[in-house]
């Protein structure tokens, strides 16, 4: 145990979290690594997206006549969190607003990330508290990247995402990091999304009308062969699925509460579509769970 990282264990499952960004950086079952190990194609594992998801127009947050520079996905992923709890099967990290954050985002807040492991999976609970005197506008998202393929003897095109429910609603795509105004037909066939690199030619697939609250990622007919994982979520209203179309060996499954600014929107941040508006003294709690195994 060091000040920089902390490891959790339950049965054959282990997880490692670092203080920088409160980021999960390893999730293993019996020594099998499921999480992308931040290779040169993308130098992150599972960053937390706060106080925005995606981009703002011109990377600019406008509030009460002032402009603040806010780059893609916000600053939490590059901030050092403080350990509030460190145990064998759970840990909690906290980020408070400070001089550096207020120069980018002029709102008081407290962001808490609580990890808990059991024999079959890992839970992450995110709690955003408004510690100020005005409404707190914010978005938050997970961005975990998993190895694709999960095992070396499988091909990437063998894999599929299988949602808990059919996902027939149109999806959204990005242009220059901003949300395109037009929707696109869902690439999901019933509840199954066969995976291929070509899906990501236009960046992430954004399910902004997601029906499911869980999805299974695995290879084989019916997504039941070899190593698998299941993600489930609570409190998140959108889901992003992303990889790079150039052969990068990872797949991101991203529960979101919020999304990039729509192309053409350059108004006050508090009017941006997709935000939570948290009352003074109130909190918002969201969570996701990753279960892993082999079959």
TrEMBL record:
- Give the top-rank taxon of the lineage listed in the UniProt record for this protein: Bacteria
What InterPro entries does its record include? Answer: Aldose_1/G6P_1-epimerase, Gal_mutarotase_sf_dom, GH-type_carb-bd, LacX
This protein is called what? Answer: Aldose 1-epimerase family protein
Q: Which organism is it from?
A: Bradyrhizobium vignae
């Amino acid at each position: 145990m060091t000040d920089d990282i902390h490891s959790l264990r339950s049965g054959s499952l282990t997880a490692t979290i670092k203080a920088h960004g409160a980021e999960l950086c390893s999730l293993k079952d019996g020594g099998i690594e499921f999480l992308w190990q931040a290779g040169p194609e993308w130098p992150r594992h599972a960053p937390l997206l706060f106080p925005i998801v995606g981009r703002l127009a011109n990377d600019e947050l406008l509030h009460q006549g002032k402009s603040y520079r806010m780059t893609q996905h916000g600053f939490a992923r590059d901030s050092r969190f403080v350990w509030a709890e460190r145990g064998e099967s759970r840990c909690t990290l906290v980020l408070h607003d400070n001089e550096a954050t207020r120069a980018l985002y002029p709102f008081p807040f407290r962001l808490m990330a609580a990890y808990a492991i059991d024999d079959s999976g890992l839970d992450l609970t995110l709690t955003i508290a408004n510690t100020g005197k005005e409404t707190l506008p914010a978005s938050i998202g997970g961005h975990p990247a998993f190895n694709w393929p999960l095992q070396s003897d499988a091909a990437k095109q063998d894999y599929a995402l299988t949602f808990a429910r059919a996902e027939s609603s149109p999806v959204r795509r990005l242009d220059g990091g901003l949300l395109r105004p037009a929707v696109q037909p869902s690439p999901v066939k019933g509840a199954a999304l066969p995976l291929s690199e070509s899906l990501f030619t236009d960046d992430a697939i954004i399910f902004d009308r997601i029906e499911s609250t869980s999805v299974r990622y695995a290879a084989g007919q019916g997504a039941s062969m070899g190593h698998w994982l299941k993600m489930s979520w609570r409190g998140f209203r959108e889901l992003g699925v992303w990889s790079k179309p150039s052969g990068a060996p990872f797949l991101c499954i991203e529960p979101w509460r919020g999304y990039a600014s729509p192309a053409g929107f350059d108004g006050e941040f508090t009017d941006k579509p997709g935000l939570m508006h948290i009352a003074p003294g109130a909190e918002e709690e969201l969570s996701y769970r990753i279960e892993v195994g082999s079959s």
